[in-house]
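Exercise 7. Given the components listed, write out the predicted structure of the assembled complex. Treat all entries as one system.
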Amino acid sequence: MSRLSDLLAARTRPVVTAEFPSIDGGGLAAVEKAADEMRPYVDAVNATDNPAAHAHASNTSIAIAMMQFGLEPIMQVVCRDKNRIAMQADIMGASLFGVENVACLTGDDVTAGDEPEARRVFDLDSTQLIKVASGLAEGHYLSGRAIKEPPALFVGAVENPFAPPLDYRVLRARKKAEAGARFLQLQIGYYPDRLEHFVRGCVETGVTDTTALLPTVVLTKTARALSFMDESVPGISIPADTIRRVADAGDKEAIAEASYQLTLELSRHALSLPGVSGIHLTDFRHDGSLERLVRDLGIGPAFDPVATAAGTTAG
Amino acid sequence: MPKLLPLLEHAVKKPVWDCRMCGQCVLHSTGMTCPMTCPKTLRNGPCGGVREDGHCEVKPEMRCVWVKAEERSHSPVNPHHWEEEFHDLRPPVDNRLQGTSSWVNLVTKRDRRTPAGWAGESHERFSAVPGASMVEVDEPTTLPAGFHA
Ligand code: SF4
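Answer.
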């Protein structure tokens, strides 16, 4: 099974996953460069699938390339752009190269992207895709056609604890867990109370017995970045006083520092919740803050007690 | 009569539920809110894009179909078991049923038919397993697996 699934099952330390930057060219060297920057600090990395409905180098190609450069991929598959045949084919194809972690997403709508005139597909929804992907690992396509040597897949999904209907989100997480999701990366959120409510619900309803929760935090540098997410990213809302707190911090440098401290605070809170298995990082700063964050939190492969004893950490 | 039924169904359900004639009606289990009116046609709950005010990511002027559905699923006027069925995992849409009458499909149980793999069943590629989903010779889209038209 994948390293991610082993780590989550072992529960010896919080796991760190992160978002891989979108790649639009520059050959494999571009992938290698990004991989080199992240490798020491993360356990697995999301190969995104046309995020925010913008076309980029594909999920499958990036996932395969990542492996070449020693990163463990989590291949996102979104329901927006492909029908059930193509999505199954992508998962099966990537698995030939050893891609095991698959995250099933609905996907932002085409209207969120730069080609809003595109046809939306949504032949399956994300919960159905979880079940279909799990079926592949069990040895059959959705049609029932048998797969002689089924791929070893570790299937997960995402959930948004911060968007309405708030009370229903736990039940939706349970539905995804029952469909076969073994990990849930949670949407970026700036309401610690909502996260707490959601995680507690997941513990109480047994979701966390089968499924690891990975809240997401994002590294930003400016108050404008927060306002942008609040206004323009579907499903993200940020309290006005949180944005103000960062905006009022002082000069550019002070604001960058306040942004970092906000992320650190949110990360600490998320990791303190019983039922949380680790954290997912999105880095919009690209200034070494990702390294600083995992060091300040003392988590990730660089701080693996087992690996440290064996002398294999990245240091 | 069978030809008229889809027309009749549409005439009744379109004004009330904005019915899209998917031919496999799940209204009772979705708080009498048609999931096909969700721009992403999600049948198993809301996406992560619902706005802070409960409106749709895609159409800001519209309340999210699933916010409405969840609310209405608790309505005391509906039979009790409908509230439970809200949590059912609804199978992928059978796109062949688009435009047909869900009333007929309900009676014939055609709307309950799912691909074998959905129920976790598998079959060898060339063996003719008599699963309901496989034997449907009158529809060219479901020729036995392995047959290439
Ligand atoms: S916000 Fe609600 S109605 Fe809009 S696409 Fe998402 S689930 Fe569908």
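Discussion: The pocket of iron/sulfur cluster is lined by residues B 38-40, 42, 46-47, 49-50, 56-58, 64-66 (CB under 6 Å). Residues 194 and 271 of chain A are 14 Å apart (CA to CA).
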